[in-house]
Amino acid sequence: MSAVLDRVPKGLLVAGRWRPGAATFVVENPATGEALCEVADGTPADALAALDAADAAQRRWAAVPPRVRGEVLRRAHDLLMERIDEFALLITLEMGKSRAEARAEVEYGAHYLRWFGEEAVRIDGTWKVSEDGTARVLVTRQPVGPCLLITPWNAPLAMPARKIGPAVAAGCTMIVKPAEQTPLTTAALAEVLREAGLPDGVLNVVPTTRAAAITEPLLRDGRLRKLSFTGSTPVGRLLMAQAAGTVLRTSMELGGNAPFIVCEDADVDAAVEGAMTAKLRNIGEACIAANRFHVHADVAGEFTRKLVARMESVAVTVMGPMIDERQRSRVAALVDETVAAGAQLRAGGVVPDGPGYFYPPTVLTGVPSGARISREEIFGPVAAIRTFTSEAEVLHAANDTEFGLVSYLYTQDLNRALRMVERLETGMIGLNRGYVSDPSAPFGGMKQSGVGREGGNSGINEYLEQKYVAIDAGRA
Ligand code: ADP
After folding, report:
1. In this structure, which residue's CA is closest to atom 23 in ligand 1?
2. Pocket test for ligand 1, best of 94, 215, 235 (most atoms within 8 A of CB)
3. Of 63, 149, 262, 376, which residue has the fewest beta carbons closer than 10 angstroms?
4. Is the distance from CB of 44 to CB of 213 less than 8 angstroms?
């Protein structure tokens, strides 16, 4: 364990050099509450130095052939897969998810690098005759320029990979600001990209405990051309307001409040299986985690009984701890408040003794409509179940939120599935499937869950600008 930690750079990556910070902060292991190591605490001056480096490298990097950019990403993918165990250990140490889930995250993140490595050579343009025939319309696409990538703690490898991949493929330079809880995996990922051949200055990394203080001067600086953020909706709103000052291009992956709908004609066993994934993956600490379970009254008894049995069979120490005490007490308070409002506690719900920030898989039924647990992101292993009796009722309830990231729908009726898929107001839908994340698919939300998409055929466009050249066609 300590050998893995020893190898991780603990400084700030600026212009291809890891340098120490003026101060440091402690990174904690959430399973024990103990310190893992100390990392440089970036300042506004460090952030501006990183922008200087990104700006200085931009023109040269944009001119590097697409195949070369793509091969850097492919090599980085291969290196990550070779070192999957080492990366998984690092993720488990600083974030808490199980080794199996951490390995799955490394693979998922690496696949984004591979996917965008393949996209780098497929950036194309168009040529056409203008409407009136007097001009030729040439449309080309160019890198948007230096980017600021702000990432959360819940997937410390996959979240930066999902942004770095398309930025590198498009020919952009960047500054990554990892979450303060999980800077180590990002630092190790940056090292892998350098080893894979990424030139100095293309990728700069500034860990910090003062996110707002270092991002504000960057967002005000006209050299920065793009902000990509994954995190909570309140912080996303704030950053979008700041980005307005320089009319900065933004991609926003914000909060979710996913409904998980089980219709009366569903395969209940499959729905329980899907619910386990959609609820417990990442310890429930995911924007795509199922947040509100809507189960038809005819199958609610069977679904709940089977879900409770499955949830109770998961040992809390195997599932992993919550990220910190703040998150754990927030989740515990949400559960207690819902029970006090009349819901029944069917599993879990009690904070275990001992070190670390563990909270057990928990099931609540009879959740009153309008309860805070149905309006807010739980971000923990808690399934809050309500029943419904009609399709119209459940569609209204599912869409009754400012969020619109993902919904999960279990039904075997094809017509119903089509009807409901068209009416659900979310950017992604898991139809008879509890898992939607896929590098080849557009990940992102509607409404206040965000702007833009990551992955899929259009993912690289977030990092490209269109440029149109009107060419005079002359006279025959
Ligand atoms: P979470 O509640 O999951 O920690 P946040 O939205 O607070 O989600 O954090 C996501 C990322 O945004 C982290 O990297 C965090 O440091 C950063 N962040 C939080 N507040 C701000 C802010 N005011 N300005 C810029 N970045 C911020």
Report:
1. 212
2. 235
3. 63
4. yes
CB-ligand 1 contact for 238 (6 Å cutoff): yes
Specify whether 229 is located in the same domain as 277. Answer: no
Among candidate residues 253, 285, 377, 462, the one labeled active-site is 253
Say yes or no to pLDDT of 475 above 90.
Answer: no
Query: In a mutational test of the pocket of ligand 1, which residue from 27, 150, 288, 378 has the highest number of ligand atoms less than 8 Å from its CB?
Result: 150
Domain total of the chain: 2
pLDDT tens per residue across span 424-457: 999 999 999 999 999 999 999 999 999 999 999 9
> pLDDT-based confidence at 2, cuts 50/70/90?
confident
476 has pLDDT over 80: no
Angstrom distances, CA of residue 51 to CA of 42, 121, 176, 315, 366: 13, 27, 10, 45, 52
Asked if residue 150 has its Cβ within 6 Å of ligand 1, the reply is: yes
Query: Rounded to the nearest whole angstrom, what is the distance from the C-alpha of residue 379 to the centroid of ligand 1?
Result: 15
Tell me which residue range forms the domain holding 111: 2-254+449-468
Residues 453 and 430 both lie in one domain: no
Token pair of 46 as six digits:
């460090």
Determine, yes or no, domain membership for 207.
Answer: yes
Specify the CATH number for the domain of residue 148. Answer: 3.40.605.10
37 belongs to the catalytic site: no
Q: Can you give 247-310 as a three-state secondary structure string?
A: CCEEEEECCCCEEEEECCCCCHHHHHHHHHHHHHHHHHCCCCCEEEEEEEHHHHHHHHHHHHHH
Ligand 1, atom 2: closest residue by C-alpha: 232
Q: Report how far ligand 1's centroid is from the alpha carbon of 232 (Å).
A: 7
**Distance from the first to the final alpha carbon of the chain:** 74
User: Which of 8, 20, 177 is CA-nearest to residue 94?
Assistant: 8
209 C-beta closer than 6 A to ligand 1 = no
Q: Are residues 204 and 278 in the same domain?
A: no
- 340 and 244 within one domain: no
Residues 241 and 278 in one domain: no
Q: Which of 119, 287, 391, 462 is catalytic?
A: 287
From ligand 1's centre to the CA of 231, what distance in Å?
A: 6
**Is 287 designated active site?**
yes
Q: Does 265 have pLDDT greater than 70? A: yes
What is the predicted pLDDT for the residue at 136? 97
